[in-house]
TrEMBL record:
InterPro entries: Quino_amine_DH_bsu, T6SS_VgrG/RHS, TEN-like_YD-shell, YD. Residues 210-349 form the Teneurin-like YD-shell domain. NCBIfam families: YD_repeat_2x. Keywords: Repeat. The keyword Endoplasmic reticulum does not apply. The keyword Phosphoprotein does not apply. Pfam families: TEN_YD-shell (PF25023). It comes from Hafnia alvei. The lineage of its organism: Bacteria, Pseudomonadati, Pseudomonadota, Gammaproteobacteria, Enterobacterales. This is Cell wall-associated polypeptide CWBP200.
């Protein structure tokens, strides 16, 4: 994993596409890698990976591939950046809000927002040194420093805090501290898995024990409580016991949760549509919740026990404009040209106006 900050870091700007062995690999903002089979004609037509079905791939390898996220209603555009590599070049929504990512010699050097904001990124020997806001007025936002192994050792940000990091020679973080005098130490096993965390203030004092033969991980908290997790071949938890001995069983099908049974034997079951969206939740006692969606994957109708129905309506930009509760009471919403919520009309006619 290689984000623009350093190895083993990930970030939203480092999402990318790469082609390997007749498959396209999509690395999202969380560092998750999804595989898509390359079409024979090189054109994607709404390609889906069932493990993360909210992503839709369209476009072609020559001109660029777009990834639409049905959850956020935003689209990422990836442009060719060398043999078998496509880097993030833009993010936009249905309102025309857009962020463009400008690269120089393969490095991200400028970020431009359609609202007029521009960021510049300064590099030294392929290491990010700083991020500045240059319009509407210049301001230093981020400063970075690195250790002798090229790992991010210090990061000072305007919006958040000043952080320091230490690593093993392999790049595993062994300590982080901040300006609030919080200091956390992390230890690892030979496989690179965290086995303990400890802070000087005592907020973190955790241990992890791994049993690969049983596919079980034991977590020991600061108070001596023991929680155990058993997992399947995909790393998904199938059984757990808490410090009081209560057991929970979970059943999966291709990364989709099918059911969860608690210590009292009460089972909650889940059904999905072809898009991977939950359409029914069966609760203990036999009651069910039913979900319906529009063509863009947005929740349009919820039916709860007793045939209580909630309804949502959206405009052509994907913003919710109306919510009707089971009693027929209606709430309405209006937005600016950029998609900012401007007003909300409550049942009974009360009007709430929000500053743009």
């Amino acid at each position: 994993m290689l984000g623009f900050l350093a190895p083993k870091w990930t970030d939203e700007w480092s999402a990318s596409l790469t082609s390997q062995d007749n498959r396209l690999h999509f690395t999202d903002s969380e560092g998750v890698v999804l595989y898509y089979r390359l079409p024979q004609d090189g054109i994607f037509r709404g390609a889906v990976n069932s493990r993360q079905a909210h992503y839709r791939l369209t476009g072609n390898l020559r001109d660029g591939v777009s990834v639409f996220d049905r959850r956020s209603q935003q689209t990422q555009l990836f442009s060719p950046a060398g043999k078998g590599v496509w880097l993030l070049s833009a993010v936009f929504d249905n309102y025309g809000n857009r962020i463009n990512f400008i690269r120089t010699n393969g490095l991200l050097t400028e970020v431009r927002h359609s609202d007029g904001y521009t960021l510049t990124l300064a590099w030294q020997q392929s290491q990010l040194m700083s991020i500045d806001l240059v319009t509407p007025q210049r301001q230093r936002l981020v400063s970075c420093h690195y250790d002798s192994n090229d790992f991010l050792a210090e990061c000072d940000t305007f919006q958040f805090s000043h952080l320091w990091h230490e690593y093993t020679s392999e790049g595993f973080m062994t300590r982080w501290r901040d300006t609030d005098k919080t200091c956390v130490d992390i230890r690892y096993d030979p496989q690179g898995r965290a086995v303990s965390t400890l802070s000087t203030e005592g907020y973190f004092d955790d241990r992890f024990i791994y049993n690969d033969d049983e596919k079980c991980t034991t977590y020991l908290d600061a108070e001596g409580g023991e929680t155990r997790y058993w997992y399947n071949e995909d790393g998904l938890v199938t059984r757990s016991t808490d410090p009081l001995g209560r057991e929970e069983i979970t059943v999966w099908n291709n990364a989709r949760l099918q059911s969860r049974t608690d210590a009292l034997g009460r089972t909650t079951a889940y059904r999905y549509n072809r898009e991977g969206e939950i359409i029914q939740v069966t609760l203990p006692g036999g009651y069910s919740l039913y979900y319906d969606y529009n063509e863009n994957g947005q929740l349009a109708r919820l039916t709860t026990p007793g045939d209580q129905v909630w309804q949502w309506d959206y405009d052509d930009k994907g913003s919710m404009v109306c919510l009707i509760d089971p009693q027929g009471r209606k709430q309405q919403f209006s937005y600016s040209e950029q998609g900012d919520l401007l007003a909300r009309v409550l049942p009974g006619g009360s009007h709430l106006a929000l500053a743009p």
